[in-house]
Structures are given as C-alpha cells and as structure tokens.
C-alpha cells in the first residue's frame, strides 16, 4: 500500500467521480482505476460502487476513507514539523469545537490566529463531543475542545473554563418560573429539551441530577443546536444549558435564562490533544492561543457564565 494510493482514493471520494479526480490529480483515468483496483485487491474488499452517475463509497470504503484521511493528515503534519521554524510556525492545524462552544470561541479564535500567525491555516470542525473524541484519537484533527467527564485520560488536556448551566425558556414561556431562579427539583419536573447522551453536556446534567436523588422525566432529545433553539421558541419545553449557544436569543429578548438553585450545575471545558501523535510547532502555537483567547473572553465578560481556569499565555 502506497501513500499515493491513499491520496488517489481520497480524491475520488471527495470528487465523487473517477474522471474529475483524474483531472485534479493530473493522472490518466485508466491508471487511476488500476491503482484503486490494486488497493481493493490488497485490502480484500470493494471500496467503491461505480455507476453512470459516479462513484460512492461502500461501507468498507467509508471506513477506509476515515483512516486514509488520518494517515495523510499525519504525514502532512510530519512534513510541516520538519520544515517549519519555532519562531515562525506555519502549516495547517485542525481544531474541533463542540456546537455549544463554537458561538463563544470560534470567531474570536479565528481572528486571533489570523493576526498572530498569518502563515497558519486553522481548520475548524464543529461536531458533537463524541465525534470529536473519535477524530482526535484517529489523528484526523490535532486539537479538540472537550468537556471533562472524568474520562479524558487518553488525551493530554488542559482546563480552559468552567461554564455555569442555567434553566432557559422562551420569553414568557408557560414553563418559566415565577421567581428569578428555579430549584433543580422543580426544573427536572418540567419538559426539558436536551442534547442526546452522546453530547458532552447531557451526561454532566444527568450525573448531577442523580447525585441529588432526582431524575429527569420528560425529555426531548435534540442534537442540533439550531433545532433545539426552534423547539424552545415553539415552547415545547425548557432546557438546561450554558448561556453561550443561546446568547443571541437571550440578548434579543427571545429567551430568558434563570439561575438554578439547590445544586451547582456547571461543566469544565478542556483543550485536548493526542498523547501519541505529537503536535507541530503550529499546533503548539494554536494550543497556546486557544488558552489565551478563552481566558480573555472570560475576563471581558464576552463568554457569559464562564470562569477562566487557565492563566493566559502570551502568543
């Protein structure tokens, strides 16, 4: 198996066509087809479905595609690590951010990287926490912002912020408390719209609720932040979340956030990297900048409900 075969296969899947991939790769289509056939023979599995409409990955092809991407990413990182200098880092850094954090961190971080390190290309991926963990393990991303649930021992990690969670409803909702806060025991009795269990925030809520001898009864599971917002605005229920993903709606008076009494509900946001795959100089530079930007956002009050857990480092 050769690296060029991995590049060829990834290009075919990305372009959905042997002919388009051949043009991009500057290789004759019959030669490209032959390379794919050799790869399939070596693996003992069909990787692509070929039809008049183009090509699609088989189940084996989808699995192999993820591994091929990770291998090619690590090879490129190795080249960058050898070529770049420590005083002027350059190259591509892939950073994964959960949906519920991206609204607070993504844009300020993009701006900071462009200003501090113009020769670094930052690739941001917004996914569920469980997906980011798998991508970080495989090497498809270099860094990931994750939630510390006590099971991040496989990664090198540093705490970024502690985020308070609040009870949030549509403005004037039938589920809104009559006071300016709501006891946890009352909150869990109401219909709640929450991310699924594979989402980092949900296990944290469930654990705290159980520790208080309570349980959540009526739950609508929604993994999309956009759909969750729509369900809240339709007054299908309330939610327990940090303020950040719903900040715009709260600031515009569409939603209202209430402190929860009776138990402290928060989550620790952590920056993680692989213990087995070393970071390039560019990766280390972005790592330091994430810590610095997160700290600054907390101090300025831009990241509402968040308290910095790390000292800001100079970029």
Describe this structure in words.
The chain has eleven helices and 14 strands. Helix 1 packs across helix 2, helix 1 crosses helix 4 and helix 5 crosses helix 11. A hairpin with a 2-residue loop joins strand 1 and strand 2. It is 44% helix and 24% strand. It has three domains: 76 residues, Arc Repressor Mutant, subunit A; 100 residues, Periplasmic binding protein-like II (D-Maltodextrin-Binding Protein, domain 2), CATH 3.40.190.10; 106 residues, D-Maltodextrin-Binding Protein, domain 2 (3-Layer(aba) Sandwich). It is globular, with a radius of gyration of 23 Å. By secondary structure, the chain is an alpha/beta fold. Strands 3, 4, 5, 6, 10, 11, 13 and 14 form an eight-stranded mixed sheet that branches. Strands 1-2 form a two-stranded antiparallel sheet. It has a two-stranded parallel ribbon with strand order 7-12.
Task: Name the features.
about 325 residues; alpha/beta; Arc Repressor Mutant, subunit A; D-Maltodextrin-Binding Protein, domain 2; about 45% helix; globular; transcription; LysR substrate-binding domain-containing protein
